Amino acid sequence: MPKNSKVTQREQSNEHVTESVADLLAHEEPLDYKSSSLNVVGDAGKKVPQIEVPEDDGRPAWNSKLQYILAQVGFSVGLGNVWRFPYLCQKNGGGAYLVPYFILLLLIGIPLFFLELAVGQKIRRGSIGVWNYVCPSLGGIGMSSLMVWAFGAYIMYPAGHFYFFPSFDLLWAVPIKREMGHFSISFRLHYTVVEPECDKSSATTYFWYRQTLNITSTIAESGGLNIKMTLSLLVAWIIVCLAVIKGIASSGKVMYFSSLFPYVVLFCFLVRGLMLKGSVDGIAHMFTPKLEKMLEPQVWREAATQVFFALGLGFGGVIAFSSYNKIDNNCHFDAVLVSLINFFTSILATLVVFAVLGFKANIMNEKCVIENAEKILGYLNSDVLSHDLIPPHVNFSHLTTSDYAEMYGVIKAVKEGGFAQLGLEPCLLEDELNKSVQGTGLAFIAFTEAMTHFPGSPFWSVMFFFMLINLGLGSMIGTMTGITTPVLDTYKVQKELFTVCCCIVAFFCGLLFVQRSGNYFVTMFDDYSAGLPLTVVVILENLSVAWIYGTKRFMQDLEDMLGFRPCIIYFYLWKYVSPLCLIVLISATVIEMSISPPGYSAWVEELAQERFQSYPPWALAMCFALIVVAMLPLPVVFIARRLNLMSDGSNKLSVSYRKTMMKDMSNLEEQDEARFILGAKPGEAPSSAPAQRAYLTPGGTKTLDANSLSPNSCYGTSYQNAAISPTTPTTPTTPESDS
Q1: What gap in Å lies between CA 252 and CA 477, rounded to an integer?
Q2: What are the pLDDT digits (tens) for 374-392?
Q3: Within a 10 A sphere around the Cβ of 629, how many other Cβ atoms?
Q4: 602 φ, ψ to 5°?
Q5: What is the rounded distance in angstroms from the CA atom of residue 31 to the CA atom of residue 28?
C-alpha cells in the first residue's frame, strides 16, 4: 500500500493506537463505497467487473466491425479456395472429402483460429510480441511464423495480372501457327502449320506453359528472367504496396472491395454455370461420395493441411489483424463466423468449378463421339466393318452419346481380336470428369478452356481473372500485415518507409519465381517451406497456451475479455484433442516425406506433356534448407533465453496492456487499505473477498511496477487480492499451471 497512507503511518509508529474505527473514518475523505474500488464486497447479486477496457494508447484500430471481418475473410479466403480445394475434392472422392474436412475444421480449425484471435486481441501485439509474453522461452514461435510467412510473401503469383489483358481477346484460345516455306528455282511455296507443341497439347495449355511461363524442361535450366512475368510481378507489388503503406488505415478500405468482389463474381459464375449444358453432371459428380476414400490416411492428412492453409493458422496474419481490436471484442463470434464463411466459400467455388468442368466434359465428350463416329463411317465405307453391326435406329447425322455407346459395345463384342487396331475410344463422360488438374493448371488451363465455350466468353474471362487478382490482393495484404506488425511493435521505425522496403525486398526475392524455371521453385517452396514448419509452429502455439500458460487461466482471461465463459468443449479441444491431431499430422507428414521421392512435374516440350523428375542434389539441399531455416528460430531462441543471452522483450508490452495491469495493481493497494480499516485486525480480510486476478503475461518473482515487467519463466503472474501485512514482503504469488 502507499507509504504515505494513514494506515501505513500508524503501523510504523511506536505510539499506541487508541482511535476507534469510527475515529479513523472520521478523518478520511468521504467515499461512495458502491462506486469506489474500496467496495470489496459489492452489491448483493452484482458481479464486480474483472477487467477494464484499456484507454486509447495510439495503436491503430479498425473503423468498424465489418471492416475487421472483411479483412479476416479477405486474408483467409484466397486462391487456394478457388483452385486447391476443388482439386482436392475431385482427387479425394468428391463429397467424401467434405466429411473429413468439416470434422477437422471443428476439431482443430475453429479452436486454433479462436486461440490466435484471442491472444492477439488480449496482448495487442504481433506474432513475435504475443509469444514472447505467453512464454519467452518459446518466443521463437513468432519468428518462425514470420519466416514461413516471408517465404510465402516471395511467391507473389503474377499470372493473374498477366492473363487479365489477353482475356479481352481470348488470346489463349487461338492455336499458334508457324509460317513455313519451300523455295526452289521454279516456284516459291508459303504455308502455315500449327506449332507442334500446341498441336500435341491444346491452345490453352500452350499459352500457359510456353507464352506465359516460357518454361524450361528441368529445374536445372534457369533460362533467365521471363520479362513479361517480371513486369507483372512489379505491377502486383506496386498495388500491394499502395494498399498497405498506411497500415490498416489504407488496407481496411481496400478490403471492402477486394473481399466482396470475388463473391459477386462467384455467384454470377454459379448462376451462369447452372444454365450450361452438362453443369448438373459436374455437380452430381462432385457430391457423389466415394466412401472408400474416407478410410485412406492420405485424405485426412490433405484435409488437415487444407484447413491450416485456408484459415491462415500459424502465419501471424490472424494475430496481427486481431491485435487492432478492442479488448472486449467478441472474438469467439469472429472465429466461428470467419471459419464458416471460409468453408462455405470453398463449397461455392467448388460448385462453380465443377459446374463449368461438367460443361467442358460434355463438350469434350461430344467431340470424342463425333471423331470416333467419323472413324466408324470410314471403316464402313472401306468394308472393314459390316453395316450389320450398326443398330438400325442409329442416325450418324444426329448421333447421341447413348447411341454411340451402344454401337461401340456391339463392335467391341464382335471384333474381339482386332478391336484394338480400330483405335476407337469409349467416350465416357465419367472419364472426362475424372481428369483432375492440379493447382494453377485448374485455373489457367482447364477453367480458361471451358470459358472459351461460354456465350460472351471475353466478359466472363475478364471477370474471372479480375477476381483472381482481388483474391491474391486480399491474401497479400494479410501477408504484409503479418510481417510488418511484429516488427513495428518491436522496433520504432517509420511505418511507410519500412513497408516500402519490405515490398522492394520481396520483389527482388520474387525474381527467383519469374525466371523461366520459376514455376518449379514455386512448387518446391509450397511443398517444403510451409508444410512441416507451419504444423510445428501451430502445435507449439497450442502447447504454449494450453499446457504452459494453462488452459484454466486462459479460459479465465477469455471470460474477462468476452464477459462470458466460452463453452467447456474448448478446454478439452485445446488441451487434448487439437495437440493429438497435430502430432498425428506431423507424424504423417514426416512419413510421407520420407517414403515419397522428392521431385516435381516438369514440362517436356518435345512431348508437350508433364513428366515427373527427381530433384538434383543441390535442389534437395535447398529443400532441406527451407525446412531448417523456417524452424531454426525455435531452438535458437529457446537456448539463448535459457542461457540469458537474449532479452525476453517484456519491456515492450503494449501501453494499453501495461496500463490495465498497473491500474489493477493500484486498486489492490487501495483494497488492502480498506480491508485493514474495516477488518477486525491488520491482515484480516472480509469474508467475501474478490477472486484471484490472472494476467496473460509471463510470470516473475519480482514486484512489478510501471517500468519493469521482467518475466523469468513461462507462467502468467496472478496477483491475489488478499491483505498483506506491512511487515510481510510483497511478493506476487505464481499459481501452478493446470497442465
Answers
A1: 9
A2: 888 888 888 888 888 888 8
A3: 15
A4: -100, 140
A5: 8
